[in-house]
Specification:
86 residues; mainly alpha; 79% helix; globular
Amino acid sequence: MQSTKLGFIISLTAEKDQAAEWKAACETAKAQCQNVTDLQKAIPILLGIRLRSDQIPWRAACDEMIQGIQGEEFFTNPRYQAILSA
């Protein structure tokens, strides 16, 4: 169930009419998160992808996927603030 939700979040993000870089970020996330059963465990993977990339579409795609898992808490949680401002 949880992995289905993650796949749904990633597919929604990938289906948007965005740059190829955005879609590539989603495909990378899908590949790296495919064996994750607990959505919370996907967040460190997505943050890792985000931190390794200097491309804005990649960061935005990862932000959207994490927000889909965490909800608004992603933007208000102090733990994520440092990463968002990096």
